[in-house]
Design brief:
2 domains, FAD/NAD(P)-binding domain, binds flavin-adenine dinucleotide, 379 residues, globular, D-Amino Acid Oxidase, Chain A, domain 2, alpha/beta
Length: 379
């Protein structure tokens, strides 16, 4: 049973099902049109897959990123073969806004090139040739051809449609309680808000920013909720329409462009052919602040004239779950038969395939609980 139909939960459900397991996906938003899921992090995401330009080049985070980049390639091919294509635009150009960033990029390029990764340093002159123009203050850039961007809504729909065609079980209800089953086989009983009850040997908790609330309802005295704390961080994003079609139809842009953490993503596939996604804000908490859009729109005072003249045609927001005091994501077997797949913060789209692979390994390896912490429902 998988709780939460964001990209992480749907990827887990899809992969578990493809491995031959019987899966029930539970999410209240499954009842409605996709709009009902607007506030889930996944449908709000921009879909940037930032793998090879990641700051840290070692450790678990790095391995998960590399694994996910490779998995997205094979998952997209697999889904497209069965009639569920996911649009993907390769290439990511990180602009350098300061001397420090330029030096960092130079070090990163050298280090990654030594490992055979195809990162390229672009000179100030080369980035100045881009059309539409990028901020004039850009001192250069780091280009990664193997990173890129996919449409997260389309990815969700493709995985769900493929899993549904193969008989995925769905329950449109909000999980309000989860209790361990007694008996040798173990497992869990779910109580839904609308009165549904379901049982499963394994449960994957993938409810995004709602996961802490679910953890708090596990009947263990709140131990798991305090052991795995997470905070919501809201993000706003915009779809803009350019005043005129870029002279060369975005062709000189090598993919998504990143300026000071803000993503500029050409969407020539959207109506009219001259749209751009711009985002996202980082706002601790659950409430959006309209004023946070100003630095986004103005690129902190560096927006070129074409960007200032672009007209917003859509504005949306979503929540990310950021782990407290631990690196993202939280992939943990937190009790016998209970897997936490949460806290993906800013990289849940990228990391969904590696997270699903981890969940499958747990279920198939049957490590009932690798935590030293015993789970006592009567605590
Ligand atoms: C504006 C924005 C831009 C982003 N851009 C990127 C990006 O470019 N690249 C990237 O990799 N990541 C990006 N992210 C982060 C990414 O979206 C998240 O890390 C990812 O969506 C997390 O997925 P999830 O499945 O864990 O959670 P979610 O997508 O939030 O899904 C959780 C699901 O759980 C369901 N749920 C809640 N409570 C319950 C319950 N009690 N019972 C059952 N189901 C429940 C909800 O309805 C929801 O559908 C962005 C996020 C935002 C907000």
């Amino acid at each position: 049973m998988v709780l939460g139909a964001g990209l992480v939960g749907v990827a887990c459900a899809w992969l578990l099902q493809r491995r031959g397991h019987r899966v029930l996906l539970v999410d209240p938003a499954l009842a409605g049109p996709p709009d009902a899921m607007l506030r889930n992090g996944s449908r709000a995401a921009l879909g940037v897959l930032m793998g090879q330009v990641a700051h840290r080049g070692s450790g678990r985070g790095w391995r998960l990123r590399q694994q996910s980049l490779a998995l997205w390639r094979s998952w997209r091919a697999d889904l497209a073969r069965r009639g569920y294509p996911i649009a993907y635009r390769p290439g990511l150009l990180m602009l350098a806004a300061s001397g420090n960033q330029l030096e960092h990029q130079q070090r990163l390029a050298l280090e990654r090139q030594r490992r055979g990764l195809p990162l390229e340093l672009w000179s100030r002159e080369r980035v100045a040739e881009l059309d539409p123009v990028v901020p004039a203050a850009a001192l250069g850039g780091l280009f990664s051809p193997d990173d890129g961007q996919l449409d997260p809504g389309q990815a969700l729909d493709a995985l769900l449609a493929d899993a549904n065609a193969a008989g995925l079980g769905q329950l449109a209800d909000r999980a309000v309680a989860l209790e361990p089953l007694t008996g040798a086989a173990g497992g869990w009983r779910l109580q839904g808000e609308a009165g549904h009850v379901a049982e499963a040997e394994w449960v994957v908790l993938a409810a995004g920013a709602a996961t802490p609330a679910l953890l708090a309802r596990l009947g263990d005295g709140g131990t798991l909720a305090t052991t795995w704390p997470m905070q919501p961080v809201l993000g706003q994003a915009l779809e803009l329409e350019l005043p005129a079609e870029p002279a060369n139809g975005w062709r000189p842009w090598p993919g998504a462009v990143v300026w000071e953490g803000i993503n500029l993503i050409p969407r020539p596939d959207r109506p009219g052919g001259r749209r751009l996604w711009l985002g996202a804000t980082l706002e601790p908490g659950r409430e959006a602040d309209g004023a946070a859009l100003d630095p986004l729109r103005s690129l902190g005072g560096h927006a070129p004239a074409w960007l200032k003249a672009a007209v917003p045609v859509a504005h949306w927001q979503g929540l990310r779950a950021r782990p407290d005091g631990r690196p993202a994501p939280l992939l943990e077997p937190i009790a016998p038969g209970l897997l936490l797949a949460g806290g993906h913060y800013r990289n849940g789209v990228l990391l969904a395939p590696a997270s699903a692979t981890w969940a499958v390994e747990q279920v198939e390896g049957k490590p009932r609980c690798s935590q030293a912490m015993p789970f006592d429902p009567n605590m």
